[in-house]
Specification:
Length: 323
C-alpha cells in the first residue's frame, strides 16, 4: 500500500486518524505473517488395562496422576466397564449351563420312559407244570403269576402289620407304665422317708441350703438333688433332707444318757412298779435311748412313737431315782 506523502512531515493529524491508520497496518501485518501454533496439549491419560491386580487398582503409577482427579475418574470408568463385561460373560455362562442342565433333564426323562425298570425274572417252572404252561401260554402264565405274587405280598404285609403293631403298642405301653411306676415308687419313697418333704421343698431355708456345697462330693447340693431326681433315687434325697433338718437345730443329747439300773429296790415277791402314764413298761438300753434321741431329732419318729419314747425314758429315769 502506498502512503500519502502529504500526510508526512510537520502536519499534525487528529488522533482518530492516527489510530485508524495503525490498526490498518497491524491487520495487514497479521495477514502476511504465518499463523501462530497452539501450545501442545497434555497427553491423554492412559486407560487401566482390563486385567489388573488390587495393587494396580489402588496405587497410581506416579504422584502426579495420584493427585489428578481426571486420572482417577478415567480409572473408575475403566473398572466399571470391565465389571460390566465380566457380568455379561458370567450371565452368558450361567445361561449356557442352565440350558445344558435342562437338556440333560429332558434326556433323562426320555430314557426313563423308554427304558422302564425291568421286573424281576419269574421262573414259571417253579409254579406251573409244562402242560399248564403250554395250555395257558408263557406270557399269560407270567402275567397271572406276577399278579398273584403282588396280591400275596399285599396280604403278607397286612398280616405282618396286624401281628407286629400290637406288639409295638404293648412294648410302648410297658415302657410308659414302667416310667409311671418308677415315678410312683420314687414319690412313695419320699413320703415314707420324709413325710413333710413337699412342705420342706418350698421352705426358703431349704432353698438357701441347697445353694451351698456338699462336703462329701464337692458339688452344689442343688446339683445333687437334680442327679437324685433323674435317677429316681428317693433315699438320696431323704438323706439330704435329714441333713438339712440337723443343720437347722441339732438336738442336744443328754451329757450322760440314763443307764439301765442293774438292781431294783424291793424283793422278788414285791409287785413290779406301775409304769408311768403313756409308757408300756419296756426298759430301754443306753444305745436304744441314744438312737431314739437321734431318730427323734431328724424327724424319723411319728408323733405316737415320740410320745411313747419320751414316756419310756421318763419312767426309766424315775425308777432310777433321777426323775
Amino acid at each position: 500500500m502506498n502512503e500519502n506523502p502529504s500526510l508526512e512531515g510537520n502536519v499534525r493529524l487528529p488522533h482518530q486518524v492516527t489510530r485508524a491508520g495503525q490498526n490498518a497496518r497491524d491487520l495487514l501485518k497479521a495477514a502476511e505473517s504465518p499463523p501462530e501454533t497452539k501450545p501442545p496439549e497434555k497427553p491423554p491419560v492412559a486407560a487401566v488395562p482390563a486385567a489388573f491386580t488390587v495393587e494396580q487398582l489402588l496405587n497410581a503409577p506416579d504422584s502426579e496422576r495420584d493427585a489428578s482427579r481426571d486420572y482417577w475418574f478415567a480409572r473408575c470408568q475403566s473398572v466399571e466397564g470391565w465389571r460390566r463385561e465380566d457380568n455379561k460373560r458370567t450371565s452368558a455362562r450361567i445361561q449356557a449351563l442352565e440350558s445344558d442342565l435342562a437338556k440333560l433333564r429332558e434326556k433323562n426323562t426320555e430314557l426313563a420312559k423308554s427304558h422302564p425298570a425291568t421286573a424281576p425274572v419269574i421262573d414259571l417252572k417253579k409254579h406251573f407244570t409244562e402242560e399248564e404252561i403250554d395250555s395257558i401260554g408263557e406270557e399269560r402264565a407270567t402275567a397271572i403269576l406276577r399278579a398273584s405274587l403282588q396280591a400275596a405280598d399285599a396280604v403278607i404285609q397286612e398280616r405282618i402289620d396286624a401281628a407286629v403293631k400290637p406288639l409295638l403298642d404293648k412294648q410302648n405301653q410297658r415302657a410308659e407304665e414302667s416310667e409311671i411306676e418308677r415315678h410312683r415308687k420314687f414319690v412313695q419313697g419320699l413320703d415314707d422317708g420324709f413325710p413333710t418333704w413337699q412342705v420342706t421343698d418350698k421352705d426358703q431355708r431349704w432353698l438357701a441350703w441347697l445353694s451351698g456345697i456338699d462336703d462329701a462330693s464337692g458339688l452344689q447340693r442343688q446339683k445333687l438333688i437334680n442327679i437324685h431326681k433323674a435317677d429316681y433315687n428317693a433315699d438320696g434325697i431323704v438323706k439330704m433332707l435329714q441333713a438339712f433338718v440337723v443343720s437347722l437345730a441339732p438336738a442336744a443329747l443328754p451329757p450322760s444318757p440314763p443307764e439301765t439300773p442293774t438292781t431294783l429296790n424291793g424283793t422278788g415277791g414285791d409287785n413290779p412298779p406301775n409304769p408311768a402314764p403313756g409308757s408300756d413298761g419296756k426298759v430301754l438300753t443306753a444305745m436304744e435311748i441314744k438312737e431314739g434321741y437321734k431318730r427323734k431329732a431328724i424327724g424319723k419318729m411319728s408323733k405316737e412313737e415320740a410320745d411313747l419314747f419320751d414316756a419310756r425314758v421318763a419312767a426309766q429315769m424315775k425308777s432310777a431315782g433321777r426323775g
